[in-house]
Design brief:
Shape: globular
Number of domains: 4
Distance between the termini: 91 Å
Organism: Nocardiopsis endophytica
Strand content: 15-25%
Helix content: 25-40%
Structural class: alpha/beta
Pfam family, one: BpsA_C
CATH topology of the largest domain: Rossmann fold
CATH superfamily of the largest domain: Vaccinia Virus protein VP39
InterPro entries: BpsA_C, DNA_methylase_N6_adenine_CS, rRNA_MeTrfase/Polyamine_Synth, SAM-dependent_MTases_sf
Number of strands: 15
Protein name: Bis-aminopropyl spermidine synthase family protein
CATH class of the largest domain: Alpha Beta
Number of helices: 19
Strand order of the largest sheet: 5-4-3-6-7-9-8
Largest sheet: 7 strands, mixed
CATH architecture of the largest domain: 3-Layer(aba) Sandwich
Length: about 550
Amino acid sequence: MNDLPPELSALLDAQGADAARAHRVLAALSDGAWWSPRELVRATAVAHRTASAVLDALGPDLERDSSGAEERVRLVRTGPYAAFDRPRAADPWAPLIQARPEAAEELRRLVAEAPPSRTDLDHVAATARTALRRGVFLDERFDLAGRRLLCVGDHDLTSLAALLVRPEAEAVVVDVDERMLAYIGAAADRLGLRVRCHFADLRLGLPPAVAGACDVVFTDPPYTPEGVELFVRRGLEGMADPRRGRVVVAYGASETTPGLVAKTQARLARMDLVFEAVHPDFNRYSGAEAIGAASDLYVLRPLARAAAGRGPEAARIYSQGGNAKEAAAARSGELEELAGSSALPEPGSDGGPETVVGDWPATAARAGVHRVRLGTWMSTPVEAEDAVVNLTGGWEALLGRALLASGGMKVRAVVPASAPQVRDEAGQRALAALLGPGVGVRFRRGGPGSRLMVVEAAPSPPGPDAPPSDRLRARCRERAHGPLPRVMREALIAVAAEEGRSVNKKTARRSVAEAAPWAAGHTLLDLPEHRFPDLDRAAERIFEAVEGDPRDPGE
């Protein structure tokens, strides 16, 4: 094609066989219409850097319009570029997608109404068509009927898409984003789909009921090598039999950064995962133009010795926000200043905590002070009279549950003052409601101009004249690590005894199952926040049912 601009010819020659990506951009432009660079990237799945290089090389053949909010471009002459618009391979999943118009319409609505992406969690929303594409792929590739799909993070609603395609399946969603858990849970209830949602910060592991319980895993993780490895490890941790299951991963990187892809794939290979298939540009996104608004789909087959495991607790898995690598350095000095202030007496001193939890600077914890890993605090009851928990550096989503994990002892937590649970009265009221009637809570700034907040929670048990439902709620929150149905049953029996009524185990089991069927498989520490009001309402219904039960309580 001798009539191309010299700069474009040189660019295509330099790219060699990989010039096919540039050809996609030229094929799109050959229609002569106006395009924004963002639209070109999304239509072609070519990284923004590559698309920009093509536009720059077009020289006088390209017209630019910068009058609007976003620059637009079009070809001045299209003739030399029509040859680039040649037939391409058909999408093999298109017939399966077209056969499900009702699921497609439902997913368009679900994706449009979903909570917005959170940049601090590296969210970029997949398109509704991609969600359905994943659903039909999972159903075609695996026997999902009667199986359990684990979604390790589910900002893109893959759990709902898979079950819209295969309603006989079950799905388990584990995520740190309370908004998504509430949204998925409400949608699943409305659609009659069997989806169970659990709260968890995946850096600390999976909820107990999820570990070893699932058959197939899907994850669209943060695209740092650390993020991909961690989310895949959690997927392996959740598999009932890794040798018979698969881990399906959405992973994307710019074609200009192959070294990053190599690092990520090397990590997966070291985990004894076989690359059974790689589907290029399978996933499309409403954003992420730096990687072509697209990602590949990996199908990974675990070998018998495939590694799960928890990995490092403080792994920096995200590229932005408080979890990012760059955020770690600024915290140490602030914590040292806070330790010893009136807001937080120095650990080991008079009035200071005996136990410090999480990542503290060495100077902020004296010798002899009991140190506890955050993962241990969240997974196992710890005996202590007074503890302080460091939740800075991207751990603030754990605030309410870290306070509940104290088991009824005095505990203080340090969080950024910008955290939504503490930055205004609405957030503070919501936190107090989550902690319930048996806990008193106070909020104090770390000092003048401090960017830290100290949240103190101390036991404040309801008195004997308090409603029995309040006493049941308080007892449940004192045993946050325990299986929630069992904790509720034992609390019911104990509070009923305080009321002079005998409730046996059978009656308690039936009452809890009827009032809180959603509690099965949960502890309070992995129960999504939107379920806590359901727990409080269940406490009231349980006592109404017991008081109105005509059967002999000793049966």
